[in-house]
């Protein structure tokens, strides 16, 4: 199965095997910059937010606070947390595919 959040798992190949012709593929690096850890936590956990909310409802606010604190430690350990408190997450790549449907 293809992870819909990752082109690294072969989206390009799947697209080329589809009924569409890939005319052009453009990739570019992207960097996310957040003003603080709270904003980074909110933005970067968007995909798993439903699971976090479910855990928080089972464990209350203490569990939610633990997740935020752990996130701070993870960001710091990976070098994303800057001395001024901002969070800069690089190393991300996005791809834009330009495709054409073949004439029938």
Describe the structure.
The structure is a single chain. The radius of gyration is 19 Å and the shape is elongated. The protein has helices at residues 11-17, 37-44, 49-77, and strands at 21-34, 87-100. It is built from three helices and two strands, in the order αβααβ. Strands 1-2 form a two-stranded antiparallel sheet. Helix content is 42%, strand content 27%. The chain has 104 residues and is of the alpha+beta class.
Please sum up the structure shown.
By secondary structure, this protein is α+β, with helices and mostly antiparallel strands.
Could you tell me the mean pLDDT? 80
Please give the oligomerization state of what you see: single chain
- Biggest sheet: strands side by side, in what order? 1-2
Secondary structure: number of strands = 2
Cα end-to-end separation: 29 Å
Query: What gyration radius follows from the Cα positions, in whole Å?
Result: 19 Å
Count of helical regions:
3
Please identify the structural class as seen in this structure. Answer: alpha+beta
Helix content: 40-55%
